[in-house]
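Input sequence (130 aa), recorded before submission:
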Amino acid sequence: MAPRWRSTLPRSPRLVARGASVDPQRFVGAIPFPSVSYDEEAYHPDKWWRGPMWPPVAYFMLEILRKYGYDHEYQEIAGRLYTVMLQDGHFCECFNSQTGAGMGCNQQSWTAALLLHLNKHLQGVPSLLL
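Predicted structure, token format:
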């Protein structure tokens, strides 16, 4: 069973990382990295685990892009996420993946932590800095 299962794995995680994570029809639409792909029937931009953008998940998706050398995509998507979270101004728990409106509890430490992290990594983009 294991050899058959192994044959279904992608040959290059790098290609899979880029293909799935930067596809505008799946995960990089209006607000990047919804919890469910935009093209899924279950997707809904403001129904908790059916479509909002959650900052901790967005962080891991960004790190995948950075790890595999997609620096341009990382910068572009990170800048968009940074802007959405900063414009909301409440450090919300998650964000509507169509409008960017904050959802859930305010003053979430994970959102503040991601903003600080992105601020550090977007130093070359002056218009996005705090």
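Checked by second reader. DSSP finds five helices and two strands in the chain.
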